[in-house]
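Section 5: illustrative case.
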């Protein structure tokens, strides 16, 4: 009895942490989706938008799985704990695969961002998104203000958007008053910072999941042994009662 109580306590503590990390993953996904939506409007690749949506979905799945674990442990239900065990393994395998892919293609992300930002400069439909981006982060162009040369106004080669310098009509002055910070560097810095944040969170969740796999399996074994022991005592008591009646 003491063994199963100790195992249930360990499982509950680990599962609470798992539940909290699920909430954290969902919150991080929402933060990534909201914080730099300006960049997403310009980028053509849906991977950047999809990654935050996947993080939100993963957080919700973790929360649901953690609740299944709580119910299974409370009811001593081997079936629910077995499902919990399988779900945690599947989630861990998916996270491991996603982590490996992200590590392999981490350098390609910068190339994709630079290329798609440069393509976005040339498109009229992304012009308002660029204005919002440059006004908000006080940056100009992808690499620098010269990215707008011959693009913003084909009749005046060096004319820039007013969002590059902060006041009405300033774009006519060209690069003299333009912001010196490139929008690509700002995006790159944000992505690298959040890449390490997500990576650290993934490692922490992965270690916790391995522990949960071991603890949940041990808890299933303890519950099974306890059930077998109770069945044995019930049969022994029944046999003893039958023997007394015969006497």
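Designed sequence:
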């Amino acid at each position: 009895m003491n063994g199963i109580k100790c195992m249930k306590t360990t499982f509950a503590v680990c599962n609470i942490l798992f539940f909290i990390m699920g909430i954290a993953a969902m919150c991080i996904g929402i933060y990534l989706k909201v914080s730099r939506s300006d960049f997403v409007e310009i980028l053509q690749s849906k991977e950047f938008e999809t990654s935050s949506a996947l993080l939100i979905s993963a957080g919700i799945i973790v929360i649901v799985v953690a609740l299944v674990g709580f119910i299974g442990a409370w009811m001593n239900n081997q079936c629910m704990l077995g499902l919990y065990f399988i779900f945690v393994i599947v989630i861990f395998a998916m996270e491991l695969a996603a982590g490996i892919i992200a590590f392999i293609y981490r350098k390609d992300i910068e190339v994709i961002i630079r290329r798609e930002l440069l393509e976005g400069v040339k498109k009229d439909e992304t012009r308002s998104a660029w204005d919002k981006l440059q006004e908000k982060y006080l940056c100009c162009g992808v690499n620098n203000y010269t990215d707008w040369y011959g693009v913003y106004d084909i009749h005046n080669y060096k004319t820039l958007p007013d969002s590059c310098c902060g006041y009405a009509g300033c774009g006519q002055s060209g690069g003299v008053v333009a912001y010196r910070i490139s929008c690509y560097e700002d995006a790159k810095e944000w992505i690298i910072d959040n890449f390490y944040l997500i990576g650290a969170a993934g490692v922490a969740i992965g270690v916790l999941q391995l522990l949960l796999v071991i603890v949940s399996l041990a808890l299933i074994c303890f519950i099974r042994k306890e059930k077998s022991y109770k069945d044995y005592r019930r049969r022994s008591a029944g046999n003893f009662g039958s023997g007394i009646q015969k006497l």
